[in-house]
Write a structure and sequence with these properties.
There is one protein chain. This protein is of the alpha/beta class and 258 residues long. The protein folds into two domains: 182 residues, Thiamin diphosphate (ThDP)-binding fold, Pyr/PP domains (Rossmann fold, 3-Layer(aba) Sandwich); 51 residues, no CATH class. The protein is built from eleven helices and eight strands. The protein has a four-stranded parallel sheet with strand order 3-4-6-5, with helices on both faces. Helix 4 links the parallel strand 3 and strand 4. Helix 1 packs parallel to helix 6 and helix 3 packs parallel to helix 4. It starts with 10 loop residues before the first helix and ends in a 9-residue tail after the last strand.
Length: 258
């Protein structure tokens, strides 16, 4: 029997249940501090319901693993870091994902607001500003009821348009305070808050590309990572072979053609 009903609901439960609803099966991180409520919920029932945790010795490794997972599966990578140094250690991996348009949900813990400016261990780092230049979106959450919508918004942004990493900061109060059954009702199915179909090109830009190809004397196609994001390898190959256009890829497009 699942242990999820033994303890009262808290913010950690809302995080795990939101990830389960999204279909997340793998998260990468290092247990510590404020993140314990999330890992506790995973241990009580999350693992049984499908979430596998990959423990690392350093948060940077967790970030790179989540990046690799997203590249290999075409889905969303999830990594976690505790307050202060834990989040800072994720930066090199997040920069890589930002540069290559890889969708990551970067979860960082943060001390309770009451401890701001007190010199508390691992406190004092403005994580939102740290992540601002290298993520598409930054959200700080202070109360449990905010969690479902914050996760939904973050994932929608990460997976929409030009994909990329997003940063979700959970204050200690958001994770340790009690949640309600009403909060659970705010956890929606993915199709209710984000597009699930593969991204398509801008119709105007496509028409311009057709004109360019028709008038080009020696056309050459260089495909990028958008081919993988749109799952359009077969269309790319068909275009290249039908019209006898040589085709190559950028580093992010490697694997798109045989």
């Amino acid at each position: 029997m699942s242990k999820q009903n033994v303890s009262p609901l808290d913010g950690g439960d809302l995080v795990v249940k939101s990830l389960l609803k999204e279909g997340i099966t793998k998260i990468f991180g290092l247990v510590g501090g404020e993140l314990l409520r999330i890992y506790d919920a995973i241990e009580r029932y999350g693992r049984e319901e499908g979430i596998d945790t990959v423990m690392v010795r350093h948060e940077q490794a967790a970030g790179h693993m989540a990046d690799a997972w997203a590249r290999a599966t075409g889905g969303l990578g999830v990594c976690l870091g505790t307050a202060g140094p834990g989040v800072a250690h994720l930066v090199p991996a997040v920069v890589t994902a930002w540069a290559d348009s890889i969708p990551l949900l970067v979860i960082g813990a943060q001390i309770a607001r009451m401890f701001d400016d007190t010199g508390i261990l691992q406190g004092g780092l403005d994580q939102m500003k740290l992540m601002e230049p290298i993520t598409k979106l930054q959200i700080s959450v202070e109360e449990p009821y905010e969690i479902p919508k914050a996760i939904q918004r973050a994932i929608k942004v990460a997976m929409s348009g030009r994909r990329g990493p997003v940063f979700l900061e959970f204050r200690e109060t958001a994770l340790v305070r009690k949640a309600s059954e009403e909060d659970l009702q705010n956890i929606m199915n993915p199709e209710q808050y984000r597009p699930l179909e593969r991204p398509i090109g801008n119709p105007v830009a496509i028409k311009k590309a057709i004109v360019i190809l028709k008038t080009a004397k020696k056309p050459l196609i260089v495909a990028g990572g958008g081919i993988h994001a749109s799952d359009a390898s077969s269309e790319l190959i068909k275009l290249s072979t039908t019209y006898k256009i040589p085709c190559g890829t950028s580093i992010n497009g490697v694997g798109a053609i045989d």
